[in-house]
Design goal:
This protein is α/β, with parallel strands linked by helices. The protein is about 25% helix and about 30% strand.
């Protein structure tokens, strides 16, 4: 039986650049690095960066993305820091809770989000998506 997300592995084209982005720009903790990868963490998330010479930095055309929890009290500062670092934004926020959608150096779609599943469901109960059903 599954009981949670274990880790994320992201294919990267330039390991040094990606480690710097996740460690320095996003503030994740670097635990290990080797010739073709690195392990970092933030909160309870274990992130693996894996060097892949076939990876391009073009973002995918679909909505697949990885969202990190952001603290409401420091969200505006986070967004300012990301914009000052020159990260590319890929979407404007149109849903419940403050969100900042940005790309990593390899075009992975990322999000910093203030809120959780409970706050999202509460907002959806007030304004449900088309065809939305709730299962309590």
């Amino acid at each position: 039986m599954l009981n949670g997300l274990n880790h994320l592995t992201l294919a990267v084209s330039d390991l040094f650049r990606s480690v710097n982005f996740y460690q320095i720009t996003l503030g994740m903790r670097l635990h290990a690095r080797w010739d073709s990868g690195a392990y970092l963490s933030t909160g309870g998330l274990w992130l693996c960066l894996s060097l892949d010479p076939n990876r391009t930095n073009a973002p995918g055309a679909d909505y697949t993305h990885y969202a990190f929890t952001a603290e409401a009290s420091s969200f505006a500062d986070f967004v300012s820091t990301m914009r000052a670092a020159g990260v590319d934004e890929w979407k404007d926020n149109r849903s419940e809770g403050a969100s900042f959608y940005f790309l990593d150096p390899d075009g992975h779609k990322l999000e910093a989000h203030v809120g959780d599943l409970a706050s999202r469901l509460s907002a959806c109960r007030d304004q449900p998506y088309a065809g939305m059903q709730f299962f309590d």
